[in-house]
Amino acid sequence: MSFKPNSSSPAPLPVNSQGGGVPSPGPAAQPLPRPLFNDYGPPSLGYLSAGGGPQQPPQSKYAELLAVIEELGRDIRPTYAGSKSATERLKRGEHSIMHARALVRECLAETERSARS
């Protein structure tokens, strides 16, 4: 199987009315809201600080779950590199996989309760 590049060229951007030749975004090019999730890493929550400073408590079980997932993500990469301490933190830490599993169950129950009401 061989790679075949896409031969179509991108659509040109509209040129601004001053004639300067600098492309300007069209009226439909509004800034998009920042997505909660992305495909390039763990979600970043506003109450988690990288410097280890003061943290706000999560507002819901779902927010708490996202925080646990983010903390777990910080130990995953060193584990792949062979870090034994990161492996132990994953097994026994406050933000363990077992804690995340329990939070997932609680989030599902919370979602079912809110769907019924």
* Total beta-strand segments: 0
The main sheet comes to: none
Structural class: mainly alpha
**Gyration radius over CA:** 22 Å
Order of helices and strands: HHH
Strand content: under 5%
What global shape is seen?
A: elongated
Average pLDDT, all residues? 67
How far apart the termini lie comes to 53 Å
Percent range of helical residues: 40-55%
Alpha plus pi helix count = 3
Tell me which oligomeric state these chains represent: single chain
Can you tell me the residue ranges where pLDDT is under 50 for at least 5 consecutive residues? 34-51
Subcellular location: Nucleus
Pfam family, one: CDK2AP
GO molecular function: kinase activity
GO cellular component, one term: cytoplasm
Description:
The protein is mainly α and 117 residues long. Helices cover 42% and strands 0% of the residues. The protein has three helices and no strands. The protein has helices at residues 61-80, 84-92, 97-116. α1 packs antiparallel against α3. The longest helix is centred in the middle third of the chain and has 20 residues, at 61-80. The radius of gyration is 22 Å and the shape is elongated. The N and C termini lie far apart (53 Å). Residues 34-51 have low confidence and may be disordered.
Which descriptors apply to this entry?
single chain; 117 residues; mainly alpha; elongated; nucleus
Structure summarized in a few sentences:
By secondary structure, the protein is mostly helical. The protein has 3 helices and no strands. Its main location: nucleus.
